[in-house]
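User: Teach me something about this protein's shape.
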Amino acid sequence: MCGIIGMIGNSNVAHELAFGLNMLQHRGQDAAGILTFGDRFRLKKGCGLVDQVFDGATLDSLSGNMGIGHVRYATQGSNEQSEAQPFYLNYPFGIGMVHNGNVSNFSELARQCREDENHIVESTNDLELMLYLLANELSKRNTTPWTASDVFAAVEASQKQIFGAYASLAVIAKRGLLAFTDPHGIRPLTMGRRKEGNGWTYAFASETASLEVLGFEITRELMPGEAIFVDTAGEVHSKLLHQKKPAFCVFEYIYFAREDAVFRNHVVAEARSAMGKTLAHRFREKNLSPDVVVDVPSSAYFFAESLARELGVPYQPGFVKNKYVGRSFIMPTQQLRSRAVRMKLNPIASVVKGKKIAVVDDSLVRGTTSERIIQLLREGGAKEIYFVSAAPPIKHPCIYGIDMSIRTELLAATLSEEQVGKAIGADAMIYQKLSDIEQVFQDVGLCHACFSGEYPTESATADLKFVEAERMTHKKQNSH
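Assistant: First, the predicted structure itself:
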């Protein structure tokens, strides 16, 4: 899972791209990068946070009136700086690209690229393959005059070859800014515009807030399989291309996105409140009555507050959070995740001591973080602890860009709800029901493969084997 932003207008865009990336920092902390185009490509990328990679002088040097930016959370490839996005090619077209997602048929596409004597695969990042495919398809349509139809034909041909999840942005030198999504629309991408003199500046980003803080009017989300091309004259061209059954990632609502983001006409904060309300049904089924509901900061607040209101019991903050520690879920090793939990959270003894605590988290994946949270509550004097997952049991690996790609690491893949509770040391374990989530989002076609095992893309079984193997290699590299 990553964050992307792109912009095209009449003035330099680098500083605004960096500002927008800061608003997407929660989506990736491994690396950041910006590419601009004016008279030529200018690129800066590196490992670390946005403010660590860019300073004022660097941004000043990235001149150009169109550009793209990326924050990375590595699920494909290594954590080396060479794997950071954006990537670009100078031939046969000057194209720079970023993407959010994961190409699940990476191994097959890599084999095809290696068989092409005109191309050398230099990285383990799936973006390189996407960039190569798009450039190759564009070269087949090098017509005069060059039109948006040529771009759309190249994108559609690429979509038919690339399986997986992707929201992509590309700067095409001297031509314009391109945005497109995978046929199922698994990953989000939103368009905005801002009046600049007699014209408009257009922008695209993974989340609405990244554009709103820059003063952009939100135009709309891209549909599954759609492409939008803004040419250098400021004309906007759009077309629905290779479309399949919509399957928007449910984890955008549960965990990844900011609470003020809007996807498919659902505000994330309101969606989380609705899911918190449905969790109350599970407490009544189990005849459990907590004294207080607390949340695991910070993505679980709306779940917990809504659950408490529905149960008629107090909601109270139960932990003090160190805001200078990053999101533990997207840290590359278990050792770092465990260490981050203790550094990040400390229980408030007056809230938990002697009480039956319902502690709500957005999800439970490996269980080690949840176990540590329960230990902290025990140390704080809690009488009983009911661990609540706002997500259903995660039983199946994700092949679309979330770090849940090894089945043996998924606690719920082999254990029942009761067994999971015992494994993490809780007095009771409560999961959300998938049917309740589907009711909340009955107007949205969702990807919930991690819960149901129903993968929306082609060749998912074969792709899953590759993704699991690749992630095992990635984890071994990070453990050294």
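Now, about its shape. The longest strand covers residues 95-103. The domain at 3-247 is CATH 3.60.20.10 (Glutamine Phosphoribosylpyrophosphate, subunit 1, domain 1). If you'd like, I can walk through any region in more detail.
User: That's plenty for now, thanks!
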